[in-house]
Amino acid sequence: MSTQSIHYLKPVALCLAPGIPDSPSRHRRHTLPASEFRCLTPEDAASVFEIEREAFISVSGTCPLYLDEIRHFLTLCPELSLGWFQEGRLVAFIIGSLWDEERLTQESLTLHRPGGRTAHLHVLAVHHTFRQQGKGSILLWRYLHHLGSQPTVRRAVLMCEDTLVPFYERFGFYPVGPCAITVGSLAFTELQCSLRSHASLRRNSNC
Ligand SMILES: CC(C)(COP(=O)(O)OP(=O)(O)OC[C@H]1O[C@@H](n2cnc3c(N)ncnc32)[C@H](O)[C@@H]1OP(=O)(O)O)[C@@H](O)C(=O)NCCC(=O)NCCS
């Protein structure tokens, strides 16, 4: 899978005020795209984990993917991840892998099954300073369109706490019942989403 289907947002034109010296550091800084969506690489793992640490560990003491697991999935299936970078800084991300059973099991937390037709979304998180600005929604739409362009991937699945079910329902996910996976005392609802509508959206748009 290539990253061809991921496009850049319109970069903001950067211009230099008169009298500001044309230094090499200025060139470096300004070559960073204002806003960019791309699949993640193992080199992004530390930035991913930094966001997870604040989003999950500081709240519940645990998180969906630890550093070695992030590297594991970004090595095995980077095409199932998507990051949003602003001026080179990761502001939001999704990491997924493939799964080949009807429902999630404990094993799905750590495995990537390359022949699977289901994309398992392990984690979606937005850096805390960028939340409630629509970024999580934009990234999830883009991710689902990205999955929809992969003919072998038929549906997406995830588990979340009950409070987030309405958020995911906006994107076509529907609850299929309690998830078999528990993490400590935390219980989750499992949600699925058919990618057929996202595939047709993809065909009909330049997203
Ligand atoms: C959940 C998350 C990804 C949403 O991203 P975001 O950019 O803040 O969300 P958007 O601005 O696109 O959309 C806002 C909507 O998200 C939902 N939402 C965000 N945080 C929520 C929370 N803690 N509980 C319930 N719903 C939440 C709400 O529906 C909200 O809409 P509202 O303001 O009308 O109530 C983000 O808050 C986050 O990273 N949280 C911490 C990590 C996490 O919980 N990830 C989900 C794991 S399943």
Structure description:
It is an enzyme of class 2 (transferase). Residues 35-196 form the N-acetyltransferase domain. The protein is globular. The protein has a domain at 28-158: Aminopeptidase. It has a 7-stranded mixed sheet, with helices on both faces. The longest helix has 16 residues, at 45-60. It has helices at 24-30, 45-60, 67-76, 135-148, 165-169, 196-203; strands spanning 36-38, 81-86, 89-99, 118-126, 155-160, 174-178, 189-194. Residues 1-5 and 7-20 have low confidence and may be disordered. It is built from 6 helices and 7 strands. Helix 2 crosses helix 3 (67-76). A hairpin with a 2-residue loop joins strand 2 (81-86) and strand 3. Helices cover 29% and strands 22% of the residues. It is α+β, with helices and mostly antiparallel strands and 207 residues long. Residues 55, 124-126, 131-137, 160, 163-164, 166-167 line the site of coenzyme A.
